[in-house]
Write a structure and sequence with these properties.
This protein is of the alpha+beta class. The protein is built from eleven helices and nine strands. The chain has helices spanning 7-24, 28-34, 39-47, 66-79, 81-101, 104-116, 231-267, 279-307, 313-337, 349-358, 366-379; strands spanning 121-124, 140-143, 147-158, 165-171, 181-187, 193-198, 209-220, 269-270, 273-274. The protein has a four-stranded antiparallel β-sheet with strand order 2-3-7-6, covered by helices on one side. A hairpin with a 2-residue loop joins strand 8 and strand 9. Helix 9 (313-337) runs antiparallel to helix 11. The protein binds flavin-adenine dinucleotide.
């Protein structure tokens, strides 16, 4: 398949690669240890245009295609998956959602700040009892005429503490089930809006994950996104694109671990020769390379489908399912190639292995992707 990478695509990919090496590599281990958010680095990413890549130029976005975004995500994720999840949520869930479905006033007020990194956004769908089963929303937004009153709790929200603006999904009319769900823009600091403690995580520890609590928060009606009852569709459409970003993150984590393993195999000696000369190690690298290339084809295909305005539900789900599986398998093997050093933080691969796991969980678990895929193929 010819993806026809243009000179611009290559420029974007190289810019992301250079940025990751120059700005993210240094301190990535310490940030992971200390669960420290990459504040300065994210600010720079905003200034360089990495936080609103696909959004309209009219609102400060890059006006780029999905393939450009995926290429940049891959490069950032090779070095720092904590930074890349901030980038992914802000680009594909928050900016894309607002750019595609927001009103001109909402775009002017919020999107212009989110595309430049002046502010960061969060996407708040999951709840303590509504993860995969997103229709079971317990958070309520009661219509009071010119405003809504929001009550409930959201769980595991990326950028939960660092965001300024939150896209919150809530149930307005339970009788209407998923057609009674709405999406709202909520600002940090509004009365009754509380941010819970930061989660202590296995991976992507530099990212900032919190629960959010809403106690009678007054949300103006003009902050509802789309028509009444559009919230569930908004969430599903947005997540379908988000999955392509997470697939690219998984691809980057796998590729980063593979590159480290390949380099190490050329340097480390055992039994009088570089370990790459042992076929057991060479075959591991052959498998890794093949898996990564296959994942890359799926990820680029999903991005191309989205850019060509074709249905990308199936290709996005396949890309996420496969790339996240590859990320897990490749990172485990990369640790193995490194032997004892693989178990030590200094060599980066153990962190990549821990980071890989989340790509099989968020924005739809692997089991949920299989539901999406099987439904699509059985409908044909
Ligand atoms: C670090 C992190 C960051 C996150 N960021 C965000 C965010 O920014 N915004 C947000 O809204 N959410 C976020 N999430 C939440 C995430 O999307 C959910 O954790 C995920 O969707 C799974 O939901 P759950 O945890 O409730 O698991 P459950 O839905 O309880 O699933 C548990 C297990 O059962 C399986 N399962 C469930 N239903 C089925 C079924 N029908 N068939 C087969 N298997 C099934 C699942 O695949 C899983 O293996 C984040 C989570 C984490 C850990």
């Amino acid at each position: 398949m010819d993806f026809n990478l243009t000179e611009e695509h290559i420029m974007i990919r190289d810019a992301a690669r250079d940025f990751a090496k120059a700005e993210l590599l240094d301190g990535v281990i310490e940030r992971d240890n200390e669960q420290r958010f990459p504040t300065e680095q994210i600010k720079k990413m905003g200034e360089l245009g990495f936080l609103g890549m696909m959004a309209s130029t009219e609102y400060g976005g890059g006006g780029m295609d999905t393939l450009s975004y995926v290429l940049a995500m891959e490069e950032i994720s090779k070095i720092d998956a904590s930074a890349s999840v901030v980038m992914s949520v802000n680009n594909s869930l928050v900016c894309w959602g607002l750019d595609t479905y927001g009103s001109p006033e909402q775009k002017e007020k919020y999107l212009t700040k989110l595309t430049t990194g002046e502010s960061i956004g969060a996407f708040c769908l999951s709840e303590p009892e509504a993860g995969s089963d997103a229709t079971s929303q317990k958070t309520t937004a009661i219509d009071k005429g010119d405003h809504y009153i929001l009550n409930g709790t959201k769980n595991w929200i990326t950028n939960g503490g660092t965001s300024d603006f939150y896209l919150v999904i809530a149930q307005t009319d339970r009788e209407k089930k998923h057609r009674g769900i709405n999406a709202f823009i909520v600002e940090k600091g509004w009365e009754g809006f509380e941010i819970g403690p930061k989660e202590d995580k296995l991976g992507i520890r530099g990212s900032d994950t919190h629960s959010l609590i809403f106690n009678d928060v007054k949300v103006p009606k003009e902050n509802r996104i789309g028509e009444d009852g559009f919230g569930f569709k908004f969430a599903m459409k947005t997540l379908a694109g988000g999955r392509i970003g997470i697939a690219a993150q998984a691809l980057g984590i796998a590729a980063g671990a593979y590159e480290l393993a390949k380099k190490y195999s050329k340097e480390r000696k055992a039994f009088g020769t570089e370990i790459m000369n042992h076929q057991a190690i060479a075959f591991k690298l052959a498998d890794m390379h093949t898996q990564i290339e296959a994942a890359r084809m799926l990820v680029y295909k999903a991005a191309r489908d989205k850019d060509n305005h074709e249905n990308y539900d199936l290709s996005g789900a396949m890309a996420k399912l496969y790339a996240s599986q590859v990320a897990m398998e490749v990172t485990v093997e990369a640790v193995q190639v490194h032997g004892g050093n693989g178990f030590v933080k200094e060599y980066h691969v153990e962190r990549l292995m821990r980071d890989a796991k989340i790509t099989q969980i968020y924005e739809g678990t692997s089991e949920i992707q299989k539901i999406v895929i099987s439904r699509a193929i059985l409908k044909e």
